[in-house]
Specification:
275 residues, alpha/beta, 434 Repressor (Amino-terminal Domain), six-stranded mixed sheet, 6 strands
Length: 275
């Protein structure tokens, strides 16, 4: 039988597969035996071991259970999955999925929580073309966008307050039809009972509280945290002495921005001008 030699250093995916093979062989199991114990086909296990197929969270957890590795495979999967994301962002997403209230301000692009799949695809594909991420990482980014949006539909739906800089809706992303669909998605979002959508127009000038994107979370216990990004990393802040002034500035931004009715009217007018 031909045996493919593995280079664990070639990629996180290869390292995962090499560890799976090593632990399997340490126990004297064939791929068929491991596959049976984990509930997968031997072909699937072979593809993961040789790095031809990306492992899933379910597979990682199954490997931990069958091989008695605690959560080692799951942690390796999470590190691999978030390899293209800024430091700090995966932790923010975890808290976002449990938050009672979400407040965000975005500049330049529609935020992930409001993106259509087509809009998210264009942004991810653009990053691939620039060489910033791989095609696999691009698919993972789009998946994370979908998962974040799905968390908004949980039983105890969070209140979501969104303020978009006018540049978000004026900057064309993708083909006109995709941008038109994205604008329609914003209007649909504004109609939900647990959301507020506002646009901060350019003529606000210096009255605009923030120059960079910002996220604020209110957790079920009413604790607060903020999240902001630089070029190289994201920062999650929990200290109330830092977060409370940001929350105050956000309320001031909302007061200066267009009302939801005015914002929706602006978006709808812009959408009518998009072929």
């Amino acid at each position: 039988m031909n045996r493919k030699e593995l280079n664990p250093d070639s990629s996180p995916q290869a390292a995962f597969g090499a560890r799976l093979r090593r632990l399997r062989e340490d126990r004297g199991w064939t791929q068929e035996e491991l596959a049976h114990r984990m509930g997968y086909s031997s072909t699937h296990i072979s593809s993961v071991e040789t790095g031809r197929k990306l492992p899933t969270l379910r597979l990682a957890r199954s490997a931990d259970l069958v091989l008695g590795t605690g959560d080692a495979f799951e942690r390796e999967w999470r590190d691999m999955r978030h390899g293209s994301l800024l430091e700090g962002f995966p932790e923010y997403v975890m808290h976002e999925g449990r938050a009672a209230e979400i407040r965000l301000y975005e500049v330049g692009v529609i935020p992930g929580l409001l993106q259509t799949p087509e809009y998210a695809d264009v942004l991810a594909d653009s990053a691939v073309k620039r060489g910033a991420i791989t095609a696999d990482q691009a698919r993972e980014r789009v998946t994370i966008v979908a998962e974040r949006q799905a968390s908004l539909a949980r039983t105890a739906r969070p209140l979501v307050f969104v303020v978009l800089d006018e540049s978000c809706i004026l900057r064309p992303i993708g083909k006109p039809a995709a941008m038109k669909a994205q604008l329609e998605r914003l209007v649909e979002f504004a109609e939900l009972p647990n959301t507020v959508l506002q646009v901060a127009p350019f003529d606000m000038g210096a009255r605009r509280s923030f120059n960079l994107p910002l996220y604020l979370l209110t957790m079920p216990d009413r604790s607060l945290m903020s999240y902001a990004e630089s070029t190289h990393r994201g920062h999650l802040e929990r200290e109330s002495t830092f977060v409370l002034p940001i929350l105050t500035a956000y309320h001031q931004l909302q007061a200066e921005a267009l009302s939801q009715a005015e914002s929706v009217a602006m978006i709808e007018k812009l959408g009518k001008g998009t072929p």
